[in-house]
Design a protein that fits this description.
39% of the residues lie in helices and 20% in strands. The chain contains 14 helices and 14 strands.
Length: 416
């Protein structure tokens, strides 16, 4: 059987140019988030199937790569469905593994705990530009802080990172799931149907208000309730005055403190921001994960046409492991989308002045070659990056490639 040289569908090989950009971005992530007091952790890519299928991940639970049981535990004849054949799976995000991690190490961690996590996640999704079945996620989370300070820190840190990467004029869209629940209650939707309503409302940016109205009515909801919901949901949003306006319209249907919390976050982020971006209250924001309990946010860059970062408060997830709720809030940047945008823009990693290349004549040998290797070792000891390579026939092509890789000094060595 012939071997296949292409990677599995939805996966990709990463060439040196992209790898250089990825490493640069990861370094900037660690530096920027570290300056906000976040500490890096790591969790396994494999999770218990019971955790992955706990109705916390929304539509992502339909995209799990499940791992078959091994040896005698794999009983195909007695299996009723795929869950009987698997006991674990590849993680589809980093939030659920973090919640398990925190519950498992609660007594060893500070409170509040500010975590940074970067790693591969897997979803059996339909691949497209900037979307893969294996991709890197980059999350920051704050666990143990139930105040609006957590959201302020998450948004400020993430916007600082994007600004350092050169992104400008982006929009932070922010809302609160409690506003969604308030709208649903105000419109007369039964509480047990709210998740269904929210899933349909989340399609607003794709199918528009007419498409959402049609789907809600088709799902069996009363036309009066649907029309009122579309009217409330179609507000343009904006600054804190829009938060106050909608909170008055919802009245007692809105949970106490929801409006005040959003206003505090928006004002504090605007006061602390160091880049060129705007913060916009957007009640149409839904976020698909069912585990969100309060504030939700996304960052949009107009040129890309979709969000490149998102997150929110998920106060109930850690409690699934511990039996008592722990306040938790997180923000995830779309790492792969950012890399795609940088590649499309022909982004160049800032050149280092300490990269040197030695190109050696193939005839070099003996004492002369030893002296060159000693010189390279001394330069490395002084902090320089030194590449030692054989001189190719097409030396111009070789040097052009080295210059693209950031080698500012290229030295030729010939045999005497």
């Amino acid at each position: 059987m012939a071997l296949i040289k292409k990677p599995v569908t939805g996966m990709k090989d990463i060439l040196p140019r992209e790898m250089e950009i990825r490493n640069y971005v990861m370094g900037l992530v660690r530096e920027t988030y570290g300056s906000f007091g976040f500490t890096e952790i790591e969790t396994p890519i494999v999770e218990h199937i019971e955790n992955l299928c706990s109705n916390q991940g929304g539509e992502n639970e339909k995209l799990i790569f499940k791992i078959l049981k091994r040896g005698e535990k794999l009983d195909i004849s007695g299996a009723k469905d795929s869950n009987d054949l698997s006991d674990s799976g590849l993680r589809y995000d980093l939030t659920l593994p973090l919640s398990r991690y925190y519950a498992n190490h609660l007594n060893e961690l500070p409170s509040p705990f500010k975590a940074l996590q970067m790693g591969s996640v897997f979803r059996a999704d339909r691949p497209q530009k900037g979307r893969f079945r294996q991709f890197t996620q980059c999350d920051i989370d704050i666990l143990g802080d139930g105040t609006s300070l957590a959201e302020t820190e998450l948004v400020t840190a993430t916007t600082t990172l994007l600004s350092k990467l050169g992104f400008k004029n982006f929009t932070v869209r922010i809302s609160d799931r409690r506003f969604l629940k308030g709208i649903a209650a105000c419109c007369g939707f039964a509480e047990e149907s709210w998740d269904t309503v929210f899933i349909i409302l989340d399609k607003m940016d794709k199918i528009g208000s007419d498409g959402v109205r049609e789907e809600l009515i088709k799902a069996g909801f009363a036309e009066d309730s649907v029309n009122k919901c579309i009217e409330l949901f179609s507000t343009e949003g904006g600054d804190v005055s829009e938060v106050e306006k909608l909170s008055k319209e919802l009245g007692d249907n809105l949970a106490e403190g929801a409006a005040e919390s959003l206003i505090t976050i928006i004002n504090n982020v605007n006061a602390a921001k160091s880049g060129e971006f705007s913060v916009k209250f957007d009640p149409t924001l839904v976020r698909g994960m069912s585990y969100y309990t309060g504030t939700i946010f996304e960052i949009e860059i107009a040129e890309f046409g979709s969000s490149i970062a998102g997150g929110g408060r998920y106060d109930g997830m850690v409690g699934k492991f511990t039996g008592s709720n722990v306040p938790a809030c997180g923000f995830s940047i779309g790492f792969e989308r950012i890399i795609t945008m940088l590649l499309d823009a022909d982004f160049k990693v800032p050149a280092k002045e300490n990269k040197v290349a030695f190109l050696l004549d193939k005839k070099l040998s003996g004492e002369a070659l030893s002296r060159i290797m000693k010189e390279a070792a001394d330069l490395r000891s002084s902090g320089k990056t030194v590449l030692v390579s054989q001189m190719m026939k097409n030396k111009k092509f070789q040097k052009d490639n080295l210059e693209k890789m950031g080698y500012s000094e290229i030295k030729d060595f010939y045999a005497d």
